[in-house]
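Page 37, continued from 36.
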């Protein structure tokens, strides 16, 4: 079966959009989380910090793991970890649970983001097509950051703060399924 590099880009860009969206979507829901789970004002910041610290701390490891054991494999594992921890965060009943699940979510996000970029780089040859692909991938990531506040507000007002996490589950499942059909497995040589 011939796989289109552009369909690969769509899957990678949707995953990256979801990860970046998650960084900003949670900010809108913080006051509701604080009230519902009885967070102290000082501890509430850990909902954001746990995610971003672990995400940033594991990006290099995620990329190197993708090169060694398989880019699509690490991408899918990252998606599974991200979606499962999103579900767990959405169902959290205490501040500690929510912060722990956000940390795990950051790990999944780091794995899938780092592997997505390596997949993109090996899917598109150096030159114009790669530049376009990087522009689309980066543009959708930027859009995810911008849309977080809007989508977060809608979800919190219409449903509850839990949906800022639960929204990732069906998207994650669809992207996982699509990854097996459109992304070729690859590893770095040597």
């Amino acid at each position: 079966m011939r796989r289109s590099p552009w369909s690969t880009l769509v899957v990678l860009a949707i995953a990256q959009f979801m990860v970046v969206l998650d960084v900003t979507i949670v900010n809108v829901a913080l006051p509701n989380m604080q009230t519902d789970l009885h967070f102290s004002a000082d501890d509430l910041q850990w909902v954001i910090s746990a995610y971003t610290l672990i995400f940033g701390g594991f990006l290099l490891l995620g990329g190197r793991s993708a090169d060694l054991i398989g880019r699509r494999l690490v991408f899918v594992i990252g998606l599974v970890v991200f979606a499962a921890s999103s579900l767990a965060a959405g169902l959290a009943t205490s501040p500690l649970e929510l912060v722990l699940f956000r940390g795990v979510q950051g790990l999944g996000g780091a794995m899938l983001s780092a592997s997505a970029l390596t997949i993109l780089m090996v899917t598109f040859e150096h030159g114009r097509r790669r530049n376009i692909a990087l522009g689309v991938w980066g543009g959708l990531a930027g859009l995810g950051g911008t849309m977080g506040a809007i989508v977060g507000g809608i979800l919190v007002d219409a449903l509850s703060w839990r949906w800022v996490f639960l929204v990732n589950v069906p998207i994650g499942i669809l992207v996982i399924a699509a990854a097996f059909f459109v992304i070729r497995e690859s590893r770095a040589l040597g």
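The mean pLDDT is 90. Flag for discussion at group meeting. The two ends are 27 Å apart (CA to CA).
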